[in-house]
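Forgive a beginner's question, but would it be possible to get any protein sequence you like and the tokens describing how it folds?
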Amino acid sequence: MAIPQDDHGRRGERPVNKTALCLHFLLFVLLALSAWAMPRGPFVLVVTHPNDPPQKAISLIAAAGGSFVGSGGLPWISLAHANSEDFPARLLRAGALLVLNASLSAACSQESLK
């Protein structure tokens, strides 16, 4: 009795759907990056709208009860500090577009040096 084979000569194996494999890999990478970028600790990166003046970031950090530490390589990215655990949520309510892990600041700085 002969075992049926597909066009590729493999027995009982289904062909790999490369599109589905790529989409699953992309989803995994996005989930890993988002977990890494989640704000943790007292220092966070605050991203405001690129068209807003730098003073906007300083005012919304103050409105959220934090301290302005410094600006990133771009005027709409700032480093902020507060000891409160709900500081990232307060920054978002005050008008920040994104609040990210402060370790991204070091990664961005190293990338710009290359």
Residues 18-37 form the longest helix (20 residues). Residues 109-114 have pLDDT under 50 and may be disordered. Strands lie at 43-47, 67-71, 77-81, 98-101. The longest strand covers residues 43-47.
